[in-house]
Amino acid sequence: MEETVGVYLLGTEHLSPEERYLERRASQICEQVSQEVGFEMDSLVQVNACAEFVYGYIDEAELWERARAEMEQRASLRPSGKGKVYTA
After folding, report:
1. In contact, 8 and 87? CB cutoff 8 Å
2. Quick check: is 6 in a domain?
3. In the prediction, which pLDDT does 40 show?
4. CA distance 88 to 81
């Protein structure tokens, strides 16, 4: 099991209106990055940078960089370099 450290999104009902907007923006960005990288993302929970963006720890420019780095690293774990990466 992979151990990760960071902030996690556990649903959206607890988010403020601003955080919900940021969650939608993070989703758009991460979807675009996942298509570019070839990483099939099941949810934002798979990308730590998304939660950090929603909660204001990083800005949008850093989200682009960190999401790409996370997805590229996880995609490289797959034998073909592409496909779903399941996390426990």
Report:
1. no
2. no
3. 83
4. 20
Total domains in the fold of the chain = 1
Q: How many CA atoms lie within 13 A of 49 on its CB side?
A: 20
| Long-range pairs for 33-36: beta carbons < 8 A, 24 or more residues apart | 33/64, 33/67, 33/68, 33/71, 34/71, 36/68
Whether residue 57 is contained in a domain is answered as yes
Q: Is 60 helix (H, G, I), strand (E, B) or coil?
A: helix
3-state SS, residue 26: helix
SS3 66: helix
Domain-located, residue 83: no
- Structure token pair of residue 54: 């929603």
Query: By residue range, what is the domain housing residue 70?
Result: 17-76
Tell me whether residue 86 is in a domain.
no
Which residue positions in the chain have pLDDT lower than 50? 1-8, 81-82, 85-88
